[in-house]
Amino acid sequence: MEITNVMEYEAIAKQKLPKMVYDYYASGAEDQWTLQENRNAFSRILFRPRILIDVSKIDMSTTVLGFKISMPIMIAPTAMQKMAHPEGEYATARAASAAGTIMTLSSWATSSVEEVASTGPGIRFFQLYVNKDRNVVAQLVRRAERAGFKAIALTVDTPRLGRREADIKNRFTLPPFLTLKNFEGLDLGKMDETNDSGLASYVAGQIDRSLSWKDVKWLQTITKLPILVKGVLTAEDARLAIQAGAAGIIVSNHGARQLDYVPATIMALEEVVKAAQGQVPVFLDGGVRRGTDVFKALALGASGIFIGRPVVFSLASEGEAGVRKVLQMLRDEFELTMALSGCRSLKEITRDHIVTEWDHPRPLPPLPSARL
Q: Which Pfam families is this protein grouped with (predicted)?
């Protein structure tokens, strides 16, 4: 059966993957309300398409931190991709490069920064978790820099791991034939089996709960790479991120895997964009499955979006070819949405091209008076 949209890969991945692995990729925190909401919220934004505009030529290209990419659709960091497919992050890196877009490599990847760099040219960002041992952090950042990575995406929403009940039930742990490659030489590459989630125990042992804004400043003293702060959901934190020297903001709720009952990222986006006042670009991840979703995010002021789960599900289904297809389908759908909305370039996508639930409600016509 031919795959015609991004969502269809999830069912195939569910069939192919061991339950522990599928559940790790698919699940969210606690009641998974935010997991559902990340998707559902997009359906509460409708289009106001403009007609009779010459859309024979459409340009989807853009620049992110000065790097030219083919479209505003990029790859979010997702951990342990070799659980999905033997080629893991290698395949994802090649697919991103072929599509002319950016891949973000997870700190907890099953391939190292050097290995991913060896796949060939491409613009790549490195997602960073701040370890309790700052020497480990400095070493990782330097390795990413040396390997040609162009930015650091600092995850700031994980002082502790969210409660992911599927991982607790499954006693999730990294399969024994895999390691967290970036930490291998530091004896931090293995995950112990525990009586709950092995990842939660690993995080409790390794990740610094005392992380604060001063660490964002500290990071700038050890690297010249631009720092994107990933995990911002409020105007207050957007302003603090800019004050702390962030080069950009990623509106993210960690794929709804951290604090449940935070809003969908598409709902939090506009507040963050307004607070940023154009000083830094604002990006979105969470729930993007259609080209229409990409357009809605850009109409609300995002400079681009990142996709996570569609990458691991397509990787599990078809390896590199699957990831390429996901990027191509989203690109094609986004181009069609632009054409049907009357937009020929990203700068033509405006807030007026959409209407949301929270826009001033159109007054309802008066009800006919009841007859007595």
A: FMN_dh
Task: Decide if 360 is catalytic.
Answer: no
How is residue 189 written in tokens?
């590459």
- Check pLDDT > 70 for residue 206: yes
Instruction: Return the SS3 of 203.
Output: helix
Count of positions (residues) in the chain: 372
Kindly write down the DSSP assignment for every residue of 255-320, as one continuous string. GGTSSTTPPPHHHHHHHHHHHHTTSS-EEEESS--SHHHHHHHHHTT-SEEEE-HHHHHHHHHHHH
Token pair in block for residue 85: 């497919």
pLDDT tens per residue across span 283-340: 999 999 999 999 999 999 999 999 999 999 999 999 999 999 999 999 999 999 999 9
What is the separation of C-alpha 297 from the centre of its chain, rounded to a whole number of angstroms?
13
Supply the pLDDT for residue 186.
77
Count CA atoms closer than 13 A to 264's CA, side-chain side: 18
- Three-class DSSP category at 124: strand
Identify whether the C-beta of residue 331 lies closer than 8 Å to the C-beta of residue 61: no
**What is the CATH T-level fold of the domain 6-36+68-330, as seen in this structure?**
TIM Barrel (3.20.20)
Please, are residues 75 and 99 in contact by the beta-carbon 8 Å criterion?
Answer: no
Binding residues for glyoxylate, as ranges, are 24, 129, 164, 254, 257
* 28 phi and psi angles, rounded to 5 deg: -120, -170
| CA–CA gap between residue 171 and residue 200 (Å, rounded) | 10
* Catalytic residue selected from 85, 254, 353, 360: 254
153's enclosing H/E stretch is strand 151-155
pTM of the model: 0.94
Q: Of 252, 257, 254, 256, whose CA–CA distance to 269 is shortest?
A: 252
Domain boundaries, the chain: 6-36+68-330
Annotation: binding site: 24, 77-79, 106, 127, 129, 155, 164, 230, 252, 254, 257, 285-289, 308-309
Q: Per the annotation, where are the binding residues for FMN?
A: 77-79, 106, 127, 155, 230, 252, 285-289, 308-309
